[in-house]
Structure formats: structure tokens, C-alpha cells
Amino acid sequence: MQLPRCFATALICCLLGIHSAQATEKQDTISKKQAVKLATDQYAGKTLKISKQGDYYIVRILRDDGRIIDLKVHQVTGEVKKD
User: Fold this and answer.
1) Which residues form the signal peptide (predicted)?
2) CB of 80 within 8 A of CB of 70?
3) Could you tell me if 57 and 35 are in contact, meaning their C-beta atoms sit under 8 angstroms apart?
4) In the predicted model, is pLDDT for residue 4 greater than 50?
5) Residue 70 CB neighbours (<10 A)
6) Is the pLDDT assigned to residue 27 strictly greater than 60?
7) H helices then E strands: how many in the chain?
8) Which SS3 state, helix, strand or coil, does residue 49 take?
9) Phi/psi at 27 (5° precision)
10) CA trace torsion 71, 75, 78, 83 (10° rounding)
11) Is 52's pLDDT higher than 80?
12) CB 61 within 8 A of CB 69
């Protein structure tokens, strides 16, 4: 009877491990499109490029005055920072 209990315990541990790994991967993150919207709401202009760097999207914007700025948009909070 010891073997089935051991097997059941191991199976439960594996399932819990998979579930917690999926939960960390599926954090509520914003999309690239949402990141661009958040950035351009604060700094008007044409979006030139968007890339990922760590926990941030980097949104490059061409301003109406001809300047190019890079903005960091946090993937979880949506906080916009000027680089």
C-alpha cells in the first residue's frame, strides 16, 4: 500500500508545480499595442519601433518637433517612463 500513496503524492506535487509555473508565466501583462497606446497618450507622435527589454517594452516615438524619444512601459503595471 505504500507504493500507491507515494505515487499519488509525487503526482500531486508534479501537478502543483506545473500549475504554479503556468501562473507565473501568465502574469497579467499588457500587449505591445496597449504599451504603444499608453506611451502615445503621454507623448504624442509616430511610433517607430517597439521592443522588449526585461520587464519593459521600449517604445520609440518620433515627436512632431522631429525629436526621437524612447519610453519604457512596464509590462505588468503599464507605468510609462521617459528613458
Assistant:
1) 1-23
2) no
3) yes
4) yes
5) 16
6) yes
7) 2, 4
8) strand
9) -55, 150
10) -20
11) yes
12) yes
Q: Which residue has the cell 501583462?
A: 29
Domain ranges within the chain, ordered by starting residue: 46-82
Q: How confident is the model at residue 83 (pLDDT cuts 50, 70, 90)?
A: confident
Extract the C-alpha cell encoding 28: 497579467
Give the three cell numbers for residue 22: 503556468
As a whole number of angstroms, the distance between CA 79 and CA 32 comes to 13
CA distance 67 to 63: 5
Task: Find the length of the chain.
Answer: 83
Q: Hey, what amino acid is at 10?
A: A
Q: How far apart are CA 53 and CA 48, in angstroms?
A: 16
Residue type at 81 in one-letter notation: K
Cell of 51: 521592443
